[in-house]
Amino acid sequence: MSILLGIIGIAFTLFLAWLASSNRKLAFKNWKNILVLLAIQLIFAFLLLSTGAGQAVIGVLADGFNVLLGFAAEGVAFVMGDLTTLEDGTPADVFFFNVLLPIIVISALIGILQFTKILPLIIRGMGILLTKVTGMGYLESYNGAASMVLGQSEVFISLKNQLPKLTTHRLYTLSAQSMGSVSLSIVGAYMTMLEPQYVVAAIVLNLFGAYVIVHVINPYILTEEEEAATDIGGSPDDGKSFFQILGDYIMDGAKVAMTVAAMLIGYIALIAILNQAFLLIPGVSITFQDVLGYIFMPIAFLIGIPWSEAQQAGALMATKLITNEFVAMLDYQAIADQFSQKSQAMISVFLVSFANFSSIGIIAGSVKGLHNESGDKVAKFGLKLVYGASLVSLLTATIVGFFA
What we know:
single chain, 404 residues, mainly alpha, 19 helices, globular, Nucleoside permease, transmembrane helix, transmembrane, symporter activity
């Protein structure tokens, strides 16, 4: 039954991508690549979720992040003092201290890997390997690997020399990849809110799923001139000293932590206001999020979530779309036990990405700061960008449903 539901979910997701395709005649031109990419997703989902070796790898990664979070807690405790502990000496359960501030430490480690050239080497190597299976140019393949490490705004800095040469089609692909991914600096925060196996699975599957969706929703044929514009220039960190890079990445991590904190305060408060406003309407006994759940309920059901759980799942999916993944994850934590194991897996992986409306401004602003005309292009296809990136999450959730 899971196999049949999974096939229906994949077909439904690809149909949604085809409906919004910029060229429906070319949408499935690279069908062989699409099938290969879907097969790779299924293989990775099986290895990560259904084998002892996969679970062992995830366990090592989770333990590694737990160690890092422990070190981060020491730095937070030094700065925040007694605020981090209760009267009996136990750690205080404060989201800002335990989830957001550790992002600074992980960001600092990324800076060290960047300075030692280890990270750029890994990203370039992955880009070369991905060109063998994606059916796309090296620039698109490089960007897919870079996006899941650097994040949706930072990745464009590494492409600043290419931005003026990019067509709208290629720019959409790069933007969809960055929105459908997550940055390495924030993975530790996700692992404190979701089961690590689902975080790791989502990161890997989103990488390949982005190529599948882009093939359908944004098909194009590269010219020789466009392919020639794929040389990745030097890193923006070139020429900086170790402590310059370390300081930059520490501050970048702090900015991310404070930005997420501000977004959470604003969005959670606004949702509470909307929920209360709905309840004030005479005869209405459902909240704003309940309404969103009913709207997204058919989508949740068609990708394989049981009908009895589809309304709540749909509400979480919609909350992520209109706010961000952290708001949805916090809501999910409160009701996770009400879902079956399969639904927990599918919802968890769906939540692990930057696909939401607020990301339009982040990406468009980042690109505009590097090349004004390209930033305007991103802003114009912003809604389609969120649509495509959300389909990547739908596809990942569907694939995970095969093995949950």
